[in-house]
Amino acid sequence: MSILDRFMSSPAPHVEPVGTQAAARLAAIHATAFPRPWSTLDFERLMAERGVVADGLFLGRSAKPSGFVLSRIVLDEAEIITIALAPEARGKGHARPLLAHHLDELSRRGAGRVHLEVEEGNAPAIALYRRAGFRDTGRREGYYRKADGTKAAALTMALDL
């Protein structure tokens, strides 16, 4: 390693598309964020569907994503299906550029409106979505099953691109 390399900071985080080859890593991240995680096969099947857009967040020089977002586009509308960051990437502001890049990609692909559902107790996610311009459109009682077996309501939100 050269002297210059020692003084250079690692590259800025970046977002790029991910395919089914990343399914195992996405499943591992998902398992750290949700009480009912999806399997590698779940991700492979979902990512192989027509209209699904998957973006990964890459930190430093890592070839493995540290976060991801998946959406499905149907005609001119999209739904964010899931978004998650690995524990080591949380709370550092990485979700904002990941979401912004993804929303831009959805717009480029013709989506004019984006929908999502979020557990009402997930304050960091709700704050992220509201900062991005999402507005509450409804509420679904008992939509999510929590780890302790209780149920939580989902807020439905939408954003016009």
From TrEMBL:
It is an enzyme of class 2 (transferase). GO terms for molecular function: protein-N-terminal-alanine acetyltransferase activity. Keywords: Acyltransferase, Transferase. Gene3D superfamilies: 3.40.630.30. Residues 13-161 form the N-acetyltransferase domain. InterPro entries: Acyl_CoA_acyltransferase, GNAT_dom, YpeA/RimI_acetyltransf. Its EC number is 2.3.1.267. This is Ribosomal-protein-alanine N-acetyltransferase. It comes from Microvirga flocculans. The lineage of its organism: Bacteria, Pseudomonadati, Pseudomonadota, Alphaproteobacteria, Hyphomicrobiales.
